[in-house]
């Protein structure tokens, strides 16, 4: 019994001596905080592991999952229309776009003579200064929508850049693209060739920019973004709508008095006819 009491008393005295030390309580607090923090981190990790089944790792939003898929062109709206040639300094414009607002000299120079008739040029004809063929490139990034041979225009390539906005490359040869191809600005499409429509131009490329099937002057949009053509088209549509409304407002309203006069005239004619008929009947009698 005495030995047990001695052991107990010695243990109690040891605990008391431990708690009397200055670092005892801070050490206990730090150890407790470490234990609590470890428990919290363990709980969070276990929860995130359990939730992995909530995510579809076959989806396209996983970083690096679809790294081999083709990227979507997002800079097309920021590109500017450029001359459809590799080196703009090595070429010249043989025939300009026919501008209905231009002077008579400019309009005459923009006419194409074919089959004994003059036709307005709907684009620009580009030739090399040395008279040789040259690479024809995409003026703007887009999707190839037409690759065909035309007896009159020669080979034709059409690229769509936005809804209703296309560029055409006519009189070309050695075409490198097919319908459905995605091309970037500056990609080589073909080489300059010839056409039956404009034999006088020789080796050249006939370049057009069209909006909803209507050709526009390429000079007005070189070094300008696609949005410039979109804005101009919207402005032109609004202007045309305003002009139509103005014409409707200027039309004179019908004079109701004229409508009233018409029945009176008809009644007068009817009276004269009845008088003539009565006179004829009395003469016969």
From TrEMBL:
Gene3D superfamilies recorded: Glucose Permease (Domain IIA) (2.70.70.10)
Signal peptide: none
Bias (Acidic residues): 242-254, 262-272
Chain segments carrying region Disordered: 228-285
InterPro entries assigned to the protein according to its UniProt record, in alphabetical order: Cell_wall_metabolism_enzyme, Dup_hybrid_motif, M23ase_b-sheet_dom
Positions of the M23ase beta-sheet core domain: 120-218
Keywords, ordered alphabetically: Membrane, Transmembrane, Transmembrane helix
Presence of the UniProt keyword Phosphoprotein in the record: no
UniProt keyword Magnesium present: no
TM segment ranges: 23-43
CDD domains linked: M23_peptidase (cd12797)
Protein name: Stage II sporulation protein Q
């Amino acid at each position: 019994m005495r030995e047990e009491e001695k052991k107990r008393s010695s243990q109690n005295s040891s605990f008391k001596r431990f708690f009397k030390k200055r670092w005892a309580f801070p050490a206990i607090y730090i150890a407790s905080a470490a234990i609590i923090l470890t428990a919290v981190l363990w709980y969070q990790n276990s929860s995130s592991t359990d939730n992995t089944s909530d995510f579809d790792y076959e989806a396209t939003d996983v970083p690096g999952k679809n790294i081999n898929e083709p990227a979507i062109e997002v800079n097309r709206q920021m590109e500017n229309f450029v001359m459809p040639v590799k080196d703009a300094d090595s070429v010249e414009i043989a025939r300009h776009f026919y501008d209905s607002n231009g002077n008579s000299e400019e309009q005459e120079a923009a006419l194409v003579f074919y089959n004994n008739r003059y036709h307005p040029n709907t684009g620009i004809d580009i030739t090399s200064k040395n008279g040789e063929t040259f690479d024809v490139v995409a003026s703007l990034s887009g999707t190839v929508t037409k690759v065909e041979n035309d007896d009159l225009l020669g080979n034709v390539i059409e690229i769509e850049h936005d809804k209703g906005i296309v560029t055409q490359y006519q009189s070309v040869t050695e075409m490198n693209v097919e319908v459905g191809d995605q091309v970037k600005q500056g990609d080589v499409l073909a080489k300059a060739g010839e056409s039956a429509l404009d034999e006088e131009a020789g080796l050249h490329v006939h370049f057009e920019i069209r909006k909803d099937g209507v050709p526009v002057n390429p000079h007005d949009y070189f070094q300008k973004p696609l949005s410039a053509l979109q804005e101009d088209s919207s402005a032109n549509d609004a202007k045309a709508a305003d002009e139509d409304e103005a014409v409707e407002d200027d039309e004179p309203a019908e004079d109701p008095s004229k409508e009233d006069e018409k029945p009176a005239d008809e009644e007068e004619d009817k009276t004269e006819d009845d008088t003539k008929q009565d006179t004829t009947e009395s003469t016969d009698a």
